[in-house]
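Listing S7. Sequence submitted for prediction.
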Amino acid sequence: MKSFLAKKNEIEQKWLLVDADGAILGRMAAQVAPILMGKTKPTYTPHVDVGDYVVIVNAEKVRLTGKKAEQKVYDWYTHHPGGHKYLSFNDMMAKKPEKVVEMAVRRMLPKNRLGRKMLSKLKVYRGPDHEHQAQQPERIELS
């Protein structure tokens, strides 16, 4: 019996809609990442992008548990002298809540070309409206 390996032209990808209203950030990201990778499908193949498209709405209503909202800090380096920048979770949620959700999911995907391709299938929106009505995304509930 041969192992099944999915081929690029045989993949059927669906569009899924996730409402982040009241969802815990890490738990939601941990459930969205395997969907983007395709691990929820029986046709999963590690070297082929078989995952579905995911649209996340209401990104500004995502939350953290405990004291993490006050303690979590996002940092990056600008590659200039003295260019180490910091931004707290609350400031980041006020400015770019889409980026908070996107970063949480990105860090759970593979760190290679295939992971970057998987991340391009994630669409995150601040409010309840999104631009993908034509794809008729299927609404899913995360546990």
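Caption to Listing S7: primary sequence and predicted structure tokens for the chain studied. The first helix runs from residue 25 to 37. The chain is about 30% helix and 15% strand.
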